[in-house]
């Protein structure tokens, strides 16, 4: 986890914020990293004062300033708890749309990781809209912490895309493995390397005008599955030092179905996954498969993006 040296912690009012802060403290201590505690006011103090002008004309500005000060005071009090641990901690309050301002803070100060508690959508524990926006558009890795998860990970899924012909996915697979194994080493956790595989053309080849004889199709499937297995084995072989705490699974099916089902069946508490969509383009989206996974799981998720990712959010206000 040495790659994380400049951690941004979003300290909003979500139930898992304390868990996110403690995770960040652990990382900062382990990596000798610096940490910024950050929150976002939806409305600027001058706008609050304007709203209150008709109700409390003499105190409108004072009340607005007190609201703004309450954000800063809360962060400062939180930071004071960790300064004795020799962790460089700063605090900052932004104004505007929460995920937009978080991304602008990342761009302005060069943060290499964002940690935050998960927003809950009604009674659901899946990722709500603000978190999805952040994971889609933030240029650095985003680690979303769900309430109720253990303080340290015990069972980590490294979600691998075993496409042997895609360099972008190959690069992301390596980053996913590096992060998952590093986390496992520091927390004495088990790593479940999980790759969901399918032949995209299988449906067309089983029926319709391109239908192939069953035995011929099975030979193609076996050959392509073997190629995926070879790609997966080659990747895992580079992490042989972790074999005693690693299981490797290649499972047929759609990743959007396989990964959530596996996570539930094996009581996974952390998923590390790459997100691939229209890489290298401004306005990049997280990708349909990743969207499906993120709206189906109930555990902590660390997402990483390709090096060529360009955020659609401008650093300028």
What features would you highlight for this structure?
alpha/beta; elongated; ten-stranded mixed sheet; two-stranded antiparallel ribbon; 42% helix; 317 residues
Question: Which strands sit side by side, in order, in the main sheet?
Answer: 3-2-1-4-7-12-11-8-9-10
First CA to last CA: what distance? 32 Å
Tell me the number of helical segments per DSSP (H or I, 4 or more residues long): 10
> How many beta-strand segments?
12
Sheet having the most strands = 10 strands, mixed
Whole-angstrom Rg = 22 Å
Which class of secondary structure composition applies to the elements? Answer: alpha/beta
H and E string: EHEHHEHEEEHEEHEHHEHEHE
Helix proportion of residues, in percent?
40-55%
If you average the pLDDT, what whole number results?
82
Give start-end ranges of low-pLDDT stretches.
278-285
Shape category: elongated
Describe what this molecule looks like in 3D.
The protein is an alpha/beta fold and 317 residues long. The chain contains 10 helices and 12 strands. Strands 3-2-1-4-7-12-11-8-9-10 form a 10-stranded mixed beta sheet, with helices on both faces. Helix 10 (288-294) links the parallel strand 11 (270-274) and strand 12 (300-304). The longest helix has 24 residues, at 214-237. The protein is elongated. The two termini are 32 Å apart. Mean pLDDT is 82; it is low at 278-285.
């Amino acid at each position: 986890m040495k790659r994380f040296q400049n951690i941004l912690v979003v300290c909003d009012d979500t139930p898992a914020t304390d868990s996110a802060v403690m995770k960040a403290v652990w990382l900062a201590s382990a990596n000798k990293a610096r940490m910024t505690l950050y929150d976002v006011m939806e409305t600027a103090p001058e706008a609050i004062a304007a709203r209150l002008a008709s109700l409390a004309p003499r105190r409108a500005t004072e009340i607005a300033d007190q609201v703004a000060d309450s954000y800063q005071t809360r962060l400062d009090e939180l930071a004071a708890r960790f300064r004795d641990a020799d962790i460089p901690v700063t605090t900052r309050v932004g104004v505007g749309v929460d995920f937009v301002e978080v991304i602008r803070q990342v761009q302005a100060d060069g943060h290499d990781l964002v940690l935050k508690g998960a927003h809950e959508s009604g009674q659901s524990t899946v990722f709500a809209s603000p978190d999805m926006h952040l994971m889609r558009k933030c240029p650095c890795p985003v680690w979303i912490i769900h309430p109720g998860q253990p303080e340290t990970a015990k069972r980590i899924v490294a979600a691998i895309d075993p496409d042997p012909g895609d360099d972008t996915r190959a690069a992301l697979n390596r980053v996913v493995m590096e992060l998952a194994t590093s986390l496992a080493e520091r927390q004495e956790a088990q790593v479940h390397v999980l790759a969901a595989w399918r032949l995209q053309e299988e449906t067309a080849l089983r029926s319709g005008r391109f239908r192939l004889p069953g035995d011929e199709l099975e030979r193609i499937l076996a050959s392509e599955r073997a190629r995926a297995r070879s790609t997966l084995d080659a990747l895992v072989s580079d992490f042989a030092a972790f074999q005693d705490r690693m299981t490797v699974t290649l499972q047929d099916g759609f990743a959007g179905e396989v990964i959530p089902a596996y996570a539930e069946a094996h009581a996974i508490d952390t998923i590390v996954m790459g997100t691939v969509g229209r890489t290298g383009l401004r306005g990049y989206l997280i990708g349909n498969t990743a969207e499906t996974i993120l709206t189906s799981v109930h555990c902590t998720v660390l997402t990483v993006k390709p090096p060529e990712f360009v955020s659609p959010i401008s650093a300028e206000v």
